[in-house]
Amino acid sequence: MSLTLTSVARAQLDQVYRALDIILTKGEAFARSKDVEDSVWLNWRLAPDMFALARQVQLVSDFTVRGMSRLAGVEPVSLSDDETSFADLRARIAKAREVVWALDSAAIDADPHADITFPAGRGREMTLPRQAYLQNFILTNALFHASTVYNILRQLGAPVGKADMMGMSPQG
Predict the structure, then answer these.
(1) Angle 79-133-86 from CA coordinates, rounded to 5°
(2) What is the pLDDT of residue 167?
(3) Residue by residue, what is the 3-state secondary structure of 155-167?
(4) DSSP letter, residue 63
(5) Hey, how many other C-beta atoms are within 10 angstroms of the C-beta on 37?
(6) Is 72 in contact with 104 (CB distance < 8 Å)?
(7) Whole-angstrom Cα distance, residue 113 to residue 110?
(8) Phi/psi at 17 (nearest 5 deg)?
């Protein structure tokens, strides 16, 4: 069995999407048990200069949808950033998964060593081989922002653990 960009991406992103669904579900249940409104926790940050929980989830979907769409050679679907509840965030992750899984595998897998140029924030562009773009940019950003969601929920006292983040909890 040979690995393709699609097989690597889908295996890793399936775990990230599943983990986010699990930890957001547990975070919501814990917030409800404490009579905390969703907006309080969705706007929580680890530090003043970091994005809030809701934005971290949005960034997971943005990096994965936009990145994988670029690898497939199609214009990325734009997801609106208007989520106001845990349920909205879980729906966004489900939509991201749906979009990524619908992309043409053959187009994604074409010439993994060819360069791809992409926006890298603050008006900059980067160029990487397609395989490095997947491994070092798309997946790294997805994992970073998903881990930050986990860390925010842990800081708030939600009963999430490593098994949840690995998509291995009984709920997953």
Answers:
(1) 30
(2) 78
(3) HCCCCCCHHHHCC
(4) H
(5) 12
(6) yes
(7) 9
(8) -65, -45
CA distance 164 to 16: 10
The rounded distance, in Å, linking the Cα atoms of 11 and 28 is: 26
At residue 171, the pLDDT reads: 60
Scored b (16 or more CB within 10 A) or e, 54-93 reads bbbbbbbbbbbbbbbbbbbeeeebebeeebeebeebbebb
Beta-carbon neighbour count of residue 113 at 10 Å?
A: 8
Tokens at 60, concatenated: 């997971």
Prediction pTM value: 0.95
**Terminal-residue alpha carbon distance, the chain:** 27
Q: Is the dihedral of CA 20, 106, 132, 77 positive or negative?
A: negative
C-beta neighbour count of 32 within 10 angstroms? 12
pLDDT of residue 141: 98
Q: What's the pLDDT score for residue 168? A: 77
CATH topology of domain 5-165: Four Helix Bundle (Hemerythrin (Met), subunit A) (1.20.120)
Residues of the chain below pLDDT 50: 172
Is residue 79 a contact partner of residue 39, using CB atoms and an 8 Å limit?
A: no
